[in-house]
Amino acid sequence: MASDILQVKCDICAEIAHEPFIECCECETNLCCTCFASGKEKSGHKNDHKYAVRRNDFPLFENCNWSAKEECKLLSALATYGYGNWEEISKSVHTRSKLECQEHYKKYYIEKVQYNELKLIPETEHSLFLKPLTPYLYNTELSTNPPRNNQSDQLLAGYNAYRSEFELSYDQNAESIFNIEDSYSDDDDECMDALKVSLVCALNTRLRERQRRYKIIQNHGLIMPNRLLSWLKRFDATLSRPKSERLLPFMQFMTGMQFDAFMESLNLEEELLNKIVRLCEYRRNGMRTMHSARLYMQLKKDNDLAYKEQKYATSIMMRKFDSQSPVKHKLYFGNAMGKRYRKASLPLDIIDLPGFHLLSESEKTLCSNIRLIPRNYLEIKKLLISENNKLGFLRLLDARKIVKIDVNKTRKIYDYLLSEGFVSKPN
């Protein structure tokens, strides 16, 4: 049936004219080779008319090795067996495999159509530019690779993500209320009917409570709490870990997507503030273009590195000189009870660190000298002021118990807060 489109009947003998056959150029009459060789004529057709020999072995498309005969067989088989049944289509074409039939039709009839007559389907944005499928919305691997247990399932606390249910359900004995012995034989007992109705209502109530708890767990990201805490690490550079953990209670009022958007917006706010601080620094130093700002940062980095190396080399030379000097050698190294020489640390560059824009000029100098991150300093300041307001005073010993950092840094912070009037000594 797939070759009917190629069959041409002889207009003289009414038999099928196999290739090659003769076509009259004047009256468009088709003749088989036998009738043409015998010079047969028909009304309107004479044997002295001009003629042409027809064969279907020419290609229809450019740069294609498929003949017109194979193209016709392919289209006829597609109309008979339907798109996608390439096994039967290749059997009808005979000379091509199913992969060749599929690739040829996709290339010349769908992707690279060379003739406008073949463009039956209008081209749209979706047909020309296919959009990628949303992850986890259309999972094409489930049909070939069914869900199996893996090591990551242990972090889900018994939750099976593929079935969207827990291994151990909440109130798992809810269905056991129907395990009662029906010792009554009278079917018209109203008390027994009322009991059954009450049991069904009780079961529905417990099932609704189970579903409500599942929905809360899924919507608020409570399935994998360990992964949630590790996810907060990405905000340590801007929001810091203590602040991120203090924001976790907001998950009670938001869904997972809303909380993600909330955290990302706060992270973006901190990044913009840090960028504004850097731009203000560039403007104070006379920079008005980004090229000059990049050059300034590079020169500043090189200058700080050179200053650090120079100071380190100077300290080494001083140590060597002091060890060779009779007087200073005895002062620094001879006396065991005396103070030993200690290398001074360089001030910390805190301009791009989180919380820099919240500091005063004196606080910026303090944080830079004691090499403390502004965000951590603000948290320490808040704790010390809160303790001072609770007790009415604050001692250095209490400050050291609250703040678990170097005691020398704690003393400097305590002295600064005391001089600025944030805390007070006991009377």
From TrEMBL:
PANTHER family: TRANSCRIPTIONAL ADAPTER 2-ALPHA (PTHR12374:SF20), TRANSCRIPTIONAL ADAPTOR 2 ADA2 -RELATED (PTHR12374). PROSITE patterns: HTH_MYB, MYB_LIKE, SANT, SWIRM. One of its GO terms (biological process) is chromatin remodeling. This is Transcriptional adapter. InterPro entries: Homeodomain-like_sf (IPR009057), Myb_dom (IPR017930), SANT/Myb (IPR001005), SANT_dom (IPR017884), SWIRM (IPR007526), TADA2A_B-like_dom (IPR055141), WH-like_DNA-bd_sf (IPR036388), Znf_ZZ (IPR000433). Residues 339-427 form the SWIRM domain. Pfam families: Myb_DNA-binding, SWIRM, TADA2A-like_3rd, ZZ_ADA2. The lineage of its organism: Eukaryota, Metazoa, Ecdysozoa, Arthropoda, Hexapoda. Residues 62-113 form the SANT domain. The keyword Acetylation does not apply. It is found in: Nucleus. It comes from the Eukaryota.
